[in-house]
Write a structure and sequence with these properties.
single chain, mainly alpha, 4 helices, about 80% helix, about 0% strand, elongated
Length: about 120
C-alpha cells in the first residue's frame, strides 16, 4: 500500500507542473495558428495554468498561515481551483478539433489540476 501512495503523491505533485512548463515551452517554440480552436486551446491552457498557480500560492501560504480543519478560506481556494480547472477542460476540449501546439496540453492539464484539487479537498 505505501508504494501506491508514493506513486500517487508523485503523480499529483509532479505531473501537473511538468505539463504546464512543457506546454508553455511548446507554445513558445511552435508557430501559433490564429483560429478559434487554437485560441480556445490557449484560453483553456491559461486557465489550467492559473489553477496551478493558485495551487502553488496556496501551498506557499499554508507554510506561513496554519489552516484549521474546514477553514472557509481554504475551501474557497479548493472551489476556485476546481472551477478554474473545469473551465480549462471545457475550453481545452473546444480546441482539440484543430491542430495547434496546445491541442492536448490544455484539456490534459485541466484534468490533472482537477484531480489535484479533488485529492487535496478529500484530504481535508
Amino acid at each position: 500500500m505505501p508504494v501506491i501512495l508514493v506513486i500517487l503523491s508523485v503523480a499529483i505533485y509532479l505531473v501537473p507542473p511538468l505539463l504546464v512548463v512543457w506546454g508553455w515551452v511548446r507554445w513558445a517554440m511552435r508557430p501559433k495558428p490564429r483560429s478559434l480552436a487554437s485560441n480556445m486551446s490557449l484560453l483553456g491552457f491559461v486557465l489550467a495554468t492559473a489553477s496551478a498557480m493558485l495551487a502553488v500560492s496556496a501551498i506557499a501560504y499554508a507554510q506561513v498561515h496554519h489552516f484549521p480543519y474546514y477553514d472557509p478560506l481554504l475551501l474557497r481556494i479548493f472551489a476556485g481551483g476546481a472551477l478554474l480547472s473545469i473551465a480549462g477542460i471545457v475550453f481545452g476540449i473546444g480546441g482539440v478539433w484543430r491542430p495547434s501546439s496546445l491541442r492536448w496540453h490544455a484539456p490534459v492539464s485541466g484534468v490533472c489540476m482537477l484531480v489535484f484539487w479533488m485529492m487535496m479537498a478529500s484530504g481535508e
